[in-house]
Amino acid sequence: MSDSISVQTSTADTYELHFGYDLSAELEHFVQNFGSGKAFLMVDAFVLKHHRTHFEKALKSHFKELHVFEVPRGEQAKNIEVYKQAVDFVLNEGVERGTPLIAIGGGVTGDLSGFVAATVLRGIPLIHIPTTLLAMVDSSIGGKTGINHITGKNLIGSFYQPAAVFADVKYLETLPEKEWVNGLSEVLKYGMIHSPEILEKVKTLIEQNTFVDGKSWLPLIQQSATIKVEIVAEDVLEAGKRAFLNFGHTFAHVIEKAGNYTTYSHGEAVYAGMIAAVHASNSLGANIDLSNLLQFKPLYKLTLDQVDSSAKELVHLMKSDKKVKDEQIQLILLKQISSPYVYKVSETDFVERTWEHTLNIFK
Ligand SMILES: NC(=O)c1ccc[n+]([C@@H]2O[C@H](COP(=O)([O-])OP(=O)(O)OC[C@H]3O[C@@H](n4cnc5c(N)ncnc54)[C@H](O)[C@@H]3O)[C@@H](O)[C@H]2O)c1
Questions:
Q1: Measured between alpha carbons, how far is 68 from 43 in angstroms, rounded to an integer?
Q2: Residue 166's beta-bridge partner residues?
Q3: What pLDDT shows up at residue 297?
């Protein structure tokens, strides 16, 4: 069972995004495009341990040598030290311009490996095999790669498009519920900014208690990824419409920061951030039923009591975000569901009230 869509990039190249359960045959077929000498694999440590035979099945028949770099689990792997180790590994093992680098893991592995692929020899072919829900619907699409710096997240990186993406939901069979929920926030985001029926579909899947069954999520994963593809295609280098994908994220970045990037996962922060954004939208005249999002609150088991900052301090943190220009906070708000717009705000009382409301909901 598989399907695919084409993705347009700024350089007029396109790449295929494949979706399905067990994409070994498609992957095996695709890698025939490369010389049969060697391939580099950067693989999330958990995925390496539990899925090695699955991905090797598709790759070993073509490549004579597979050089595997194990990516430590967790956000801390997206740092300059691990990046350096990976670059050393790839260069020491004799990479050539056409040697593919295959990233197998969640967004951490994808962002890190993407940056390695973008920078080694000024760019070697990159293949993404996302293994988390978040990576399938979000991070493997759109070409953002990078690592974190001590002063903030994703501050070192580049836009670098993959040669192909294989979203194989077989990997999701081992994904813990916490990571499903983490990725779910981005799926809900697509429901809020683009296709409201997604919210209904998520509700049905959750009621059927199907977090373990990647196959039943396949249509929703494909729909979500397609929305991202469409938005990115119109704005590859993030000059306009792509900002809509940041719905909830301006608030979320502050929650992540306030929790030292350890207390709250990105998905938890985005969920609370979207609730803040809906509240802010309603304060400006929209009439959006917050229960569209609140119905999923029990899944998140989230309290913001570890955010040890007042609403005023949170506004201050927002102003120090890298996306802030001229002291103006940029929010993505909704006129109504599926109708996002960019709102630049310097009058911070209004944002402060939004924080008060949000902290209250997650007491
Ligand atoms: N490039 C982009 O456009 C973009 C977009 C959104 C997020 N991101 C980045 O993505 C990262 C978050 O990605 P993530 O949520 O996938 O986190 P992650 O890569 O850390 O994966 C989450 C956890 O799931 C485990 N895991 C991965 N696949 C698994 C599987 N199949 N079975 C069981 N466990 C598995 C990992 O070991 C890890 O512990 C952040 O660094 C964020 O900045 C990038």
A1: 7
A2: 18
A3: 96
Decide: 358 and 304 in contact? Cβ < 8 Å. Answer: yes
| Angstrom distance (rounded) from CA 234 to CA 239 | 10
The Cα–Cα gap between 44 and 134 comes to 14
For the chain, the residue count is: 363
Pocket lined around ligand 1, Cβ cut-off 6 Å? 44, 46-47, 73-75, 78, 105-109, 111, 131-132, 134-135, 138-139, 142, 144, 153-154, 171-172, 174-175, 179, 182, 266
Does residue 197 have a pLDDT over 70?
A: yes
What are the extents of the domains in the chain?
2-174, 189-361
Span 133-178, pLDDT tens digits: 999 999 999 999 999 998 888 999 999 999 999 999 999 999 999 9
- CATH classification for the domain delimited by 2-174, as one of 3.40.30.10, 3.40.50.11890, 3.30.160.150, 3.40.50.1970: 3.40.50.1970
What distance in Å separates the CA atoms of residue 152 and residue 145, rounded to the nearest whole number? Answer: 15
Q: What's the pTM? A: 0.94
pLDDT exceeds cutoff 70 at 24: yes
Distance CA(94)–CA(136), nearest Å, equals 30
